[in-house]
Amino acid sequence: MSPGRLLRELGQAQNELPEGVIALEVVDDADLYHWTAQIEGPPSSPFENTIFDLTITVPDQYPIKPPTFNFKNRISHPNIDFKTGDICLDVLSDKWSPAWTLASALVAIRQLLGSPEPDSPLNVDSANLWRSGDTSAINALTRYYIEKYN
Amino acid sequence: MEEEKCWICLETHAEDVENKKWVRPCACSLTAHEQCLLDWLLESKNLTCPQCGSGIRIESASSVLGSKSIAVYDIMQTAYRTGLKALFIGSVAGASISSIYSTLFAIGAAQLRVMCPTDMAFKALGVSQVSDTEYKLLPLDGKRLTLIPMIPVCLVCSRMNNSAANGIISWVMFLASVSTPLNYNQLVSSLKPSEPIGTLWLVMEARLVYMYLYDKYILPKLSHWIAESFTYRRDLEMLLTNNANNVNQGGAIRNILAAFPNAFPRIDVELEVLDGINNAPEQPDQDPPVADNQQNRRNQEQHRIAQRRRARNIVVGVDTLFSMLSPLLLPSASSFAGNILGKLPFFKKMNVFSRNVIAGSILVVLNDLIYIGVTYLRAKDRKGLRIAAYKKK
């Protein structure tokens, strides 16, 4: 794939960003395949009022193949691997389509923060907590890890 | 109105300087470069528009024959690769099996030659003597191909006492006795003890009785002697040092002797003896102080693990392998002993094969007797050791 699409996305990101996405930029101007991003935790969720750093790795075949997003810091969330920061989100794997962009995928990830899918967990402890529905425990644990690692 | 662009590479019509081909494949407003869309559709295998969900059709420019040829080529390529894999795996497996088989066959043939007089061996191996110097190899039939490699297998089995070994021996004996096609009269006449096969049957039945008696009466004694001769002194002392304050020595020894199982496989005698020591129950009437109890148990557990590890090293080693394979040398020894036996008046008239088989059986029993005797002597010797009183010069 030509880098044309990534260049366009970069231009778009410098112009305007969707709501909740604070930053989206390439690490190195000469390399369009490694990006960093910042998103804001969605309101009325345990992740509220926090800014999360992500790294983005774009494959050569982008946008035919999806990019890979990783949280930089440890985060307690059912669909995010506690150690590696890998994200389990269907549109970033088998439901991927070139209609998604890096910016729109970040919006999807932000939504995932607010409404996890405990049925396809990468972090089973967190998933069990969310399934239990114990809101104060979820809040306490999530905030604890945010304070600890962010 | 938003400018039309390719929904995959995001290029707009205005930016398209190379004049690529654009397509509008479905009912909705999405447009794309044909090549971008093809890349995506062939990768995702999902021929629907992401926006409106209507199907997208791909047409092949090549003729029906062309696309069919590609399909046929792909299938053949897959089949070819699968075939190659199967050939590789098959040849490796086949080579190992055939090398094992031919080794067994060679050993079996050599053992037949050693055990039988020349004419009988030739008959068994399918060699026909045309003249004094000329021999002809007969084509090998199924019976020879099956039975000759089974000879070394049966020999190894003959020194094991378990149902599998007994079963293998019985089946091979049966197959060796019947002629093809099955002839009842011939089978019965071949079972006369004076006939070669009949002798073999007799010896194999005797083997079962012998093994039964050995396991029932001799093995328990043997394990006592082994324990008395070398094992328990060394290992028990360690056990006693570790539990010095709660195990009374005499009681421990009694426990150990009581804990010996009555029969265990010959090869594992040493292992079982050690396990017997390890599993010796604690003295119930001499409980240690409560505070020491846990520490003691932990010591004992560690000790057990260490000992068991040592026991496995002793038993499952090269020695065990050799002791399992040693029956393979039995035919040579039997034929040697059979020659000597032939000097005795009673055995002079007997056919050579039966004489050798009987000589072999005598060797086996002798071998066991010597082992039993030496083990007994070693135990007696060890028990008879005393520390001499100090003598002033």
From TrEMBL, chain A:
<feature type="active site" description="Glycyl thioester intermediate">
    <location>
        <position position="88"/>
    </location>
</feature>
<dbReference type="GO" id="GO:0004842">
    <property type="term" value="F:ubiquitin-protein transferase activity"/>
</dbReference>
<dbReference type="InterPro" id="IPR023313">
    <property type="entry name" value="UBQ-conjugating_AS"/>
</dbReference>
<dbReference type="GO" id="GO:0005524">
    <property type="term" value="F:ATP binding"/>
</dbReference>
<keyword id="KW-0547">Nucleotide-binding</keyword>
<dbReference type="GO" id="GO:0016562">
    <property type="term" value="P:protein import into peroxisome matrix, receptor recycling"/>
</dbReference>
<feature type="domain" description="UBC core">
    <location>
        <begin position="1"/>
        <end position="150"/>
    </location>
</feature>
<keyword id="KW-0808">Transferase</keyword>
<keyword id="KW-0833">Ubl conjugation pathway</keyword>
<dbReference type="GO" id="GO:0005777">
    <property type="term" value="C:peroxisome"/>
</dbReference>
<comment type="similarity">
    <text>Belongs to the ubiquitin-conjugating enzyme family.</text>
</comment>
<keyword id="KW-0067">ATP-binding</keyword>
<dbReference type="Pfam" id="PF00179">
    <property type="entry name" value="UQ_con"/>
</dbReference>
<dbReference type="GO" id="GO:0006513">
    <property type="term" value="P:protein monoubiquitination"/>
</dbReference>
<dbReference type="InterPro" id="IPR050113">
    <property type="entry name" value="Ub_conjugating_enzyme"/>
</dbReference>
<dbReference type="GO" id="GO:0051865">
    <property type="term" value="P:protein autoubiquitination"/>
</dbReference>
<dbReference type="InterPro" id="IPR000608">
    <property type="entry name" value="UBC"/>
</dbReference>
<dbReference type="InterPro" id="IPR016135">
    <property type="entry name" value="UBQ-conjugating_enzyme/RWD"/>
</dbReference>
<protein>
    <recommendedName>
        <fullName>UBC core domain-containing protein</fullName>
    </recommendedName>
</protein>
Automatic annotation (TrEMBL), chain B:
<keyword id="KW-0472">Membrane</keyword>
<feature type="transmembrane region" description="Helical">
    <location>
        <begin position="357"/>
        <end position="377"/>
    </location>
</feature>
<keyword id="KW-0863">Zinc-finger</keyword>
<feature type="transmembrane region" description="Helical">
    <location>
        <begin position="314"/>
        <end position="337"/>
    </location>
</feature>
<dbReference type="Pfam" id="PF12906">
    <property type="entry name" value="RINGv"/>
</dbReference>
<feature type="transmembrane region" description="Helical">
    <location>
        <begin position="86"/>
        <end position="110"/>
    </location>
</feature>
<dbReference type="InterPro" id="IPR011016">
    <property type="entry name" value="Znf_RING-CH"/>
</dbReference>
<feature type="domain" description="RING-type">
    <location>
        <begin position="6"/>
        <end position="52"/>
    </location>
</feature>
<keyword id="KW-0862">Zinc</keyword>
<keyword id="KW-1133">Transmembrane helix</keyword>
<dbReference type="InterPro" id="IPR001841">
    <property type="entry name" value="Znf_RING"/>
</dbReference>
<feature type="domain" description="RING-CH-type">
    <location>
        <begin position="1"/>
        <end position="59"/>
    </location>
</feature>
<keyword id="KW-0479">Metal-binding</keyword>
<dbReference type="InterPro" id="IPR013083">
    <property type="entry name" value="Znf_RING/FYVE/PHD"/>
</dbReference>
<dbReference type="GO" id="GO:0008270">
    <property type="term" value="F:zinc ion binding"/>
</dbReference>
<protein>
    <submittedName>
        <fullName>Uncharacterized protein</fullName>
    </submittedName>
</protein>
<feature type="region of interest" description="Disordered">
    <location>
        <begin position="278"/>
        <end position="305"/>
    </location>
</feature>
<dbReference type="GO" id="GO:0016020">
    <property type="term" value="C:membrane"/>
</dbReference>
<keyword id="KW-0812">Transmembrane</keyword>
